[in-house]
Every structure is written in C-alpha cells, then in structure tokens.
Write a structure and sequence with these properties.
single chain, mainly alpha
C-alpha cells in the first residue's frame, strides 16, 4: 500500500476508519470468488458456520454490532 495513503488513513478517527473499513468490505463482498482463502481460513469459517447453525441465539444481529462499533 502506498505510504502516503496509509498516512492519510491513519489520520482519521477510529469511527471514520471503521466506516472506511465497512465501505471497503462492502465493495469486496459481491465478489467472494476473488478472495483466496488458505485451508486454515476455510476450515475456521466452516467451524464458525457450524457453531452458528448449532446455536443461532449465541450471536447478535449485524445491525446491533454495527451500532456498537459506531458508538466507539
């Protein structure tokens, strides 16, 4: 990553960086095939998905988590 760009990003407040991170992530999620995962990462995602299916009440909705993060 370009050093000047990173320097500018780090000048943002934490909530602003979280918003930037969210915007970047949302620009990536429509293209899951473009994200290469290691076998370890794929296994971890499978484990988390199975945990979710086993106890759906253990998690919180994305909107709730987003609100908590934005409140930081």
């Amino acid at each position: 990553m370009e050093t000047a760009l990173l320097t500018e990003i780090l000048k943002l407040s934490v909530p602003q960086r979280l918003q930037l991170l969210e915007a970047i992530w949302e620009s990536i999620t429509p293209f899951p095939e473009a994200v290469d995962l290691t076998e370890s990462q794929r296994s971890e995602l499978e484990n988390r998905l199975q945990a979710y299916y086993s106890d759906r009440a253990a998690g919180i909705p994305w909107e709730e988590l987003r609100a908590k993060l934005n409140a930081l």
